[in-house]
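Purpose: get a first structural picture of the assembly so the mutagenesis plan has something to point at.
Setup: three entries, given in the order below. No constraints added.
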Amino acid sequence: MKKKGIKPGHISNTHWEKKNYKWIYLFLLPTTVIFLMFYLVPIVQVFVTSFTQWDGFNDPVFNGLTNYQNLFTSSSFLISLKNLLLWSLIAMFLHVGFGTLMAFILYQRKRGWKVTRAVFMIPNVISAAAWAMIYRFFFNNDFGILNSIIRKFNPDFEVQWFFSSPWAFWAVTFTWLFYAVIVTLLVLGDLMNIPQELNEAAVIDGAKGWQTIRYIQLPLCRNAIATGVIASITSRITMYEQISLTTAGGPGNDTMSLPILLVNAVTDYRYGYANAIGVLMFVIGLIMMGIINKAFRMNESDY
Amino acid sequence: MKKKQFLAALLAGLMLVSTGCGASSNGGGSSSGGEGSGGDSGEITITIPSYKTGENVGAVFFEPQVERFNEQYEGTYHIELENVTEDVFNDQMKQLAQQNALPPLVQGGDKEWLRTVVFPNGMAYDISDWLADNPDIEALMLDDAVEYCTEDDGAIYSVPLATVRPTGFFYNSAMWDVADQDLSAMTMDEFIELIGDQQIAFSTAENAWVSALFLTALIADEDGGVDLLNSGIEEKITDLSQPQIVSAVEKLQSLLQNNASANSIGAAYPDAANAFMSSQASIIANGPWMSTDFEETNSANWSNGFDGANVRASLFPGQVGIAQTQNYGEWWISAEATEEERECALAFIEFIYTPEELEAYLLAEGGDAPNLEYSENFVTQQGETQVLADLAADTTEDTVFAPCILDVIPSSVGTSDLSRLLPSLADGTLTAEEFCAQLTTAAQEATAE
Amino acid sequence: MLTLKKGASRVFIYFLEIFVIVISVFPILWVIMSAFKTNGEILSDPLALPTSVSFDVFIHLFENYNFPQYFLNSLLAAGVSTIVSLLFFAMGGYVLAKYRFPGRTLLFVLFTVTLLVPAHSKTQPIFRLIMNLGLYDNLWGVTLVYLSTGMAMSIFILRAGFMSIPKSLDEAAIVDGAGFMRVFWSINLPLARGALATAGILMFLNNWNEYYFASLLTMSDSQRTLPIALSYFTSEFSYNYTQLFAALTIVVLPGIILYIFAQEQVQVSMASTGIKG
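Result (structure tokens, whole complex):
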């Protein structure tokens, strides 16, 4: 299936691309059309009206940077930024880390790996409302699963996980931390595409199991892991129901997030302010994407 | 290439299904519904989207009411209902309005949107002439409501309400035997003392509905509290650190700490309702529509020895009933409606404002029609539903109406900040002053220019 | 010593596998189980098994709502949109992964920031678009909107999938005289099955569960999808959890069954082509 001996020289490559520009753009056309139909207007609108006072119906009134000034003087907003940073770090290391670990474990193809891979997707089917309810029951102080277990060892234990500092932050984190199926499938896909000879060659060279992982397999999954990190962090930026249906951002501002502030602004018909938050979400997302792209050298192919 | 075959088969199957669906879909038609359907039979049909359908609590009364209308006007008018879910309903109306595709008769809609968008922009039909031609209907409407619905130029868009449903609280007389006392005639302090160690079903999640009702009653009990609440109807209250509120919050904190049923913190409305209907709490604040939950037909949802027959109701101490009479009504007519559609819509409004229908409504969902002379039959029937009779007995000329706190503060403070801060108030992390200060910050940020 | 280590790592592997299975399956089992409990039982003892099995709620639901119609509508909207958009995004993801051309980074960034577009800002433009196309209250309007919903995540997944396919395979095919289309269709697409399956399943499940646009853009019962039926049970002041969970079961279970069925298909076809390189 695979031919050897052809040098993947850059010159021939570029030539091939130039020759096929027509195809390349044709291939991008459908996605671009969908983008233009469904996303261009909202994105432009978000940016433009973020500099206005707007109730969403009557004409927006230009008010310069007022929305942004209000944002940066709001303590809820600053705490949201801090929370986002912390959640992004957790997503990057723990969430993606767990997903990657699961991918390597499934890659061992021990008994039950197919079932595990299949059921891991199921939580994605359950609507956010039911999800929040399940976790409200899980963390409930009186009859929740968690405290019932803890009280077996310490009968006097009392913690309102979702409603007291500092637990609420971690309780909210827990509702998504281990649901890393996308990362797992991305990394597993990359692992399965590693040519068998590479693994075998490493073994012949005397590499131990973890050495193969560290020096051969992990680097080859770089792109998948980076993609997982970006996907995971963007989900943190947009995380709404997990919070609004459990802690609503409390206690105090402990679990406050940008989408909560955004929806609150929409509730009050302050679309200009809401869109200023939207713009900042874009900016943060772009910055993070840029950083991760650089850190993982994502644009370089491996083979 | 099994997968390709599979996909091809799936696609083919879907195409088949879709053509079937397409054929059957024409009946739905456009939202401005049934414009041309007057046709041969001479019957005018309008289609109105409503959330009071299906599983919604409001459907129990509303769907049969539309049926009665269709029966009475068979051959002349017909109303077709479309089932729209409550949480999308307002959004859908807003979008339809922007595309000039509103249904002829519109149910509700967000108050703020009606006030700032629909009515000023001429999207609604002015019923003031019609009302002038029907003085008997106007006489039934609440004076406050008519006044509120009348615009500066004399136009009336929203159909003013004829009924008021003061909200009080329910209690389980099997657990708390105070049925021989007039609770609403007490002062709040006497009432709190009487509660003793009874459990109250509170909720703090979502809009903290049950807690918000108690907070409203506590504020109304303070000096100038009712005026304070009323002042929020015109302009939202953003200073929530006013002494009346702080003092009321202090009392609420004490109730949350000493009388809240076990699951109150983080409880949503269903949790609170269940605490009451499983005898884990003996008191719950809620509107009269909850009376249907205490009828025998709902016994499947009772547990732990709860019996709906033991439930009694009362307005809050100081004769406070939570209700907002200065408000828009439930219905308005689209300016886009054709003459025929308008005729049908007005006939429906006339129908639901007949004494029989108003009485039927009061029997089903509770409340009071102050300008209506009740029939004897109604009075006996109302007496049969204990909680409605209790509330009717409490609703007198001396009743003090106060709007719910949730309606007089910026919306987002009610929907989000209350539930964010209440657990900390309950566990003592926040004092009443700190709680109010944080709410004030939130309210001021929510109304900043 | 070696066997001990091996044993330990095996225990570790099985432990994690079981952990993942438990956290994934438990919630859905709990939902199904709760459909058979009374309201009081759910709220006061959420973990207990139902005391009796009764299908009354399900019968009530099937008698009052046209679930078969909703099911077909959901299948149509989610199925067609997934198949079409999967093809579109695969084409896009493929060239973004494998070719360098002017505007590449810009397009990639634009496609992926769609994930960050706030929902409220999409409502009005999309509603207007569907109105103007004459697709209001028509399932095809909903299907059209679903083409767009999975864009960012699918481009992420598919681009990463295509990137991990060795370029040497393409070059070999080019040397053999294959054109652009054939390199895509015969070499890359089959090798990206894993990514295609992941993206496709994810889009399908998301669209299967989507209810906001479905309810916003339709009104008549014949155009409704399953999740809308679910939202009938979550209105304010409704507290009947038994019904809610029963409805949830009716909505979610077919999704899972379809998913497992599709997963099986994908695995079979993957096994039949030895793509180990």
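The longest helix of chain B spans residues 2-24.
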